[in-house]
Amino acid sequence: MRYRFYGLLAVPVIFGAMFGGFYLDLSLNYVPVAGMITSTSVLCHLQKGRDKVADKVTHKTIEVPCAIAQDAVRPGQTWAGFTVTPVTTIYYGYVSPVDKAWHTGSTTRAGGADKWPAPGTHVRIYAHKKQADTAKFVT
């Protein structure tokens, strides 16, 4: 019984340390700069999962255009029974504080394009203080 209690205490401590480490790295090594979303790309993958007694099994396909994914899950098709999950790749640009040059980056986020900023939107990018081509897009 005592080990279960220690285990329940250890889980929040571990997650808190990971969360704190991320923000400590962000505050020590990165500086916020003005950036702009240059473009977005939405692809979809097909996903099917089932819960077992001890674990969960999930099957995913490669990312394909969403129109093809929607056609593949219709009844009678090979991928019937799968769900379509959109994935958005966001491309952004920023001026690095290291070399004062324009750099680009990208990040991949779950969800459709309507959940994320549209191209042309000005956003805050965290650029690395010492490496010109390293940045983080934090939402």
Key features of this structure:
flat, 139 residues, alpha+beta, 2 helices, six-stranded antiparallel beta sheet
List the helices and strands and how they pair.
Blueprint: H1 2-29, E1 30-51, E2 56-60, H2 66-72, E3 83-95, E4 102-110, E5 122-128, E6 135-136
Antiparallel strand pairs: 1-2, 1-3, 1-5, 3-4, 5-6
Would you give an account of this structure?
The chain has 139 residues and is of the alpha+beta class. 25% of the residues lie in helices and 42% in strands. The protein contains 2 helices and 6 strands; from the N terminus they run H-E-E-H-E-E-E-E. Strands 1, 2, 3, 4, 5 and 6 form a 6-stranded antiparallel β-sheet that branches. A hairpin with a 4-residue loop joins strand 1 and strand 2. The longest helix has 28 residues, at 2-29. The chain starts with a helix and ends with a strand.
Largest sheet: 6 strands, antiparallel
Number of domains: 1
Percentage of residues in DSSP E strands: 35-45%
| Overall mean pLDDT | 83
Distance between the termini: 40 Å
Structural class: alpha+beta
The helix count comes to 2
Low-confidence stretches: none
Q: Topology as H/E string?
A: HEEHEEEE
Give the tally of β-strands. Answer: 6
Rg, Å, rounded? 20 Å
Question: How does the overall form come out from the CA principal axes?
Answer: flat
- Determine the fraction of residues in helical runs and give it as a percent range: 25-40%
